[in-house]
Design a protein that fits this description.
CATH topology of the largest domain: Quinone Oxidoreductase, Chain A, domain 1
Helix content: 25-40%
Number of helices: 14
Radius of gyration: 21 Å
Distance between the termini: 10 Å
Bound molecules: nicotinamide-adenine-dinucleotide, zinc ion
Strand content: 15-25%
CATH superfamily of the largest domain: Medium-chain alcohol dehydrogenases, catalytic domain
CATH architecture of the largest domain: Alpha-Beta Complex
Number of domains: 2
Shape: globular
Structural class: alpha/beta
Length: 375
């Protein structure tokens, strides 16, 4: 079968994924499920791997441990069940499905106490477990999520996993009637805008350097977007005094009730903390490897009395149930926004695997915050 893979030997000195012919998966464990992939989403995580900026150890160490020469990339996908292992009871060939991308252990302390999203022994599809950039993906049945294709179109169904990230982030605090700032309007920041708007936030302000993303966010229902200049984007770690002044003015000097960090840059984390009001809520979602520096006076930081939340993945299956409700409800406009705006009605945002080239993939990453590979 055709797959986009990364070989150990190609980590150093190269970028991109290799389109390769690899063996189709074969069921070896009773709870395995083989899925014919229809659409797979490309996101910031894949970009990080493409440019060798993230997940080096997780990928290389896990491939070595499995004693195989490559990893199949991809963790957001939708497809059809082809085969199930003898122990699988709740799925059968022909079911349309997506997957939770965290392959949890089901026996660590967190898994046993309702916090599977922070499983101690998790593997992640497309990073430490083979993923979905392939004609067929094999995963354990306990991470498979059935999808009703009469209510959710396949292209949108392929975005349940990252949309779920936004649903999880938005569920950390009650945003109803609140002033909200979102730092970083990549696909997940954009999804968050749609969710927070639907939940009834009083106002939503975005901060984003990329003009394509800013325009898209405008159509997704954000109230106002502040451009971040490229020079500001690359600040080593300090907050941006100019941006913070502008944000303070918008909130009449008070600061925001809730500020989400959805970009994963040190300076953006400090912007998020600086933008929130005393006693407000900071929600940290974006990430990057390495140490981050907090640039506020520590005394003032503590006495600000804010609450900081870290969001990992999605709550299994609570977040998925909310995601399904939001996507299936035709009256709320969520699915329309996801397909018409984020995916530009499929125009330029669907890459058939037969047309894959490194240049085309890079061009699509540059032009579209979100695009799908069709298998
Ligand atoms: N916590 C989790 O479970 C989890 C899961 C998936 C992804 N992530 C991380 O969340 C973040 C968002 O994911 P995504 O797929 O939307 O990523 P993305 O990289 O596609 O989007 C990030 C956006 O932030 C913008 N940006 C860059 N510098 C900025 C700055 N200084 N201030 C504000 N915006 C800035 C970029 O232009 C881009 O639009 C990434 O860091 C990703 O690695 C976290
Ligand atoms: Zn993703
Ligand atoms: Zn666990």
């Amino acid at each position: 079968m055709q797959a986009l893979i990364l070989r150990i030997k190609d980590w150093e000195g190269k970028t991109g994924f290799e389109k390769a012919e690899v063996p189709e998966p074969v069921i070896t464990k009773g709870d395995d499920v083989i899925i014919k992939v229809h659409y797979a989403g490309v996101c910031g995580t894949d970009k990080g791997i493409w440019y060798r900026q993230a997940f080096k150890n997780q990928i290389l160490d896990s491939i070595s441990a499995e004693k195989k020469p490559y990893r199949i990339i991809g963790h957001e996908f939708f497809g059809e069940v082809k085969k199930v292992g003898p122990k699988v009871k709740n799925l059968e060939p022909g079911d349309f499905v997506s997957c939770e991308s965290h392959v949890v252990c089901n026996h660590c302390y967190q898994c046993l106490h309702g916090q599977k999203e922070v499983c101690t022994n998790e593997k992640i599809l497309g990073i430490s477990h083979d993923g979905g950039f392939a004609e067929y993906a094999m995963v354990p049945a306990h991470i498979v999520w059935k999808t009703d294709t009469s209510k959710i179109r396949p292209e949108v169904a392929a975005m349940q996993e990252p949309f779920g990230n936004a649903v999880h982030a938005a569920s950390k605090v009650d945003v109803r009637g609140k002033t909200v700032a979102i730092f970083g309007l990549g696909p997940i920041g954009m999804f968050l805008t749609i969710v927070v708007k639907g939940l009834g936030a009083k106002s939503i302000i975005g901060i984003e350097p990329n003009p394509i993303a800013r325009e898209m966010a405008g159509k997704s229902g954000i109230d106002y977007v502040i451009p971040l200049k490229p020079s500001q984007k690359n600040q080593p770690y300090e907050h941006d005094a100019e941006i913070i002044r502008e944000l303070k003015n918008i909130t009449e000097g008070v600061g925001f009730d809730v500020a989400f960090e959805m970009a994963g840059f040190n300076s953006s984390v400090n912007n998020t903390i600086a933008a929130v009001r005393r006693g407000g809520n900071v929600i940290l979602f974006g990430f990057k490897n390495g140490q981050f520096v907090l640039d506020e006076d520590y005394n003032k930081l503590v006495m600000k009395g804010m609450t900081m939340h870290c969001v990992a993945g999605r709550q299994v299956w609570k977040t998925w149930e909310t995601t399904r409700t939001l996507m299936e409800d035709a009256s709320n406009g969520v699915q329309e926004k996801l397909f018409n705006i984020i995916l530009n009605r499929g125009e330029g945002t669907i890459l058939p695997i037969s047309e894959y080239t490194k240049e085309r993939f890079e061009d699509m990453m540059a032009k579209h915050p979100k695009f799908l590979i069709q298998f």
